Amino acid sequence: MTSVDNKSPLSTPKPNIDVSVQEPEWETFENVETLVKMVTAATLGMAILPPAIIGCELETSIVLANDDLVHILNREYREKDQPTNVLTFATLDDKDNITPEGENLNLGDVILSYQTIEREAQEQGKFMLDHLKHLIVHGVLHLLGYDHQDDERANDMETLEIRILESLGVQNPYIEMEF
């Protein structure tokens, strides 16, 4: 990916972020939709965007779901018969679907499972909202083409995740906690 100054006045406009709460448990967190939008916007603002989308008006959807929905989607689209913490469905995976500069570009969907995220946070000794923020950042970066398929790309993605999370007041999620 080419480095681009995302802070310039010519950079991508404020993204349109749609948040859909499908699992009532998410509503136990005050202003969860606002939190999700803030984390998503911070991620888009700090990530190095693919050159093909610079200048596009970015759109994305974040779905706050549950294990049942994520399990179905994971089985159908990834052939993994279990729930997971986050799934992403990236529009940029379809190279023929790139929008001309200045037009709207739907980056895709990030789907998060309440029960899996809650369980992982407990097992890892993390605050659930911090873990949620991490997984939003992680999912949005996947929408932008970041991945962890090899050590170098995983390191690049994790370094960016750590930097974004630090700006949001969340400690490095890759540090192992001692109990």
Question: What this model shows, in words?
Answer:
- With 179 residues, the protein is α/β, with parallel strands linked by helices.
- It contains 5 helices and 4 strands.
- It has a 4-stranded mixed β-sheet, with helices on both faces.
- Helix 1 crosses helix 4 and helix 4 crosses helix 5 (151-167).
- The protein starts with 15 loop residues before the first strand and ends in a 12-residue tail after the last helix.
Outline:
Helix content is 40%, strand content 17%.
Number of strands: 4
Gross morphology is globular
Helix amount, in percent? Answer: 25-40%
Uncertain segments? 1-12
Please name the defining characteristics of this protein:
four-stranded mixed beta sheet, single chain, 5 helices, 4 strands, disordered N terminus, alpha/beta, 179 residues
Topology:
Blueprint: E1 16-21, H1 32-46, E2 57-65, H2 67-78, E3 86-90, E4 104-113, H3 114-124, H4 128-143, H5 151-167
Parallel strand pairs: 1-2, 2-4
Antiparallel strand pairs: 3-4
